[in-house]
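FIELD: query
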Amino acid sequence: SAASDVYKRQQLHNVWIEGGALQHRVSVDGGENWSAIQALTSGDTPSEPQITVAGSAVTVVWIRDGNGVVSRSSSDGGVTFAPAVPVSSVAAGQFLARPLVVQSGDRRYCAWLQGNPSLGGQRVWVAASSTAGATWAAPKVASNSTLPSTFQRSHSIGCDGLVAWLAYHSADAQGTGIYTSRSDDGGLLWTQGARRGAEVGGVTDVLTCHDGDRVFLVWAANGQLGYMISENLSLIHISEPT
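FIELD: result
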């Protein structure tokens, strides 16, 4: 059938850690057959790999040796990958976790958690690439705070060309709740975090996606799901939590 033919043409990618190395395989027929395993790392200790795919453009990010986020990109559907390039680095022993990566055209955005969570200083950091992951701009705190005890977590990231946005849970000057921050210039500048709705406790996950100009936020809190919708990518006008 036409539907099964489309399925068989679907390209699937898988990345995982095995034998102390980050591994990659690709299927070009919807998972019926897979390529040989390709090691993306050698001689370092990878953790928390993430992948983003759009057509033949593939970018993988991970934490290397516990003190840096790095990426490797492919322009031929994962057949070959360019050498690893640094996205961000931190001093040895500094907390670093949960890198996420998204793409739109040649733009890539990577967000992660950095800072000591036990001291309440954990924040969302973000870096952007306009060269399909070949190089990355200097990382930035996505939404800084005047409070030294700001604690951010459970972040999610989305993008559409020059526009990118972050959603995360935070205890900030505006109170505890779901916050959003956005960039309209390819990740050069980010808005101060804006709290969305009343305080929310017990949050375990925050996710975002978009369909055209509509942006959706969803989170789990105290065994329930909440969501909000923005009718435009700027996130300036957004519904009340539901």
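FIELD: remark
DSSP finds one helix and 18 strands in the chain.
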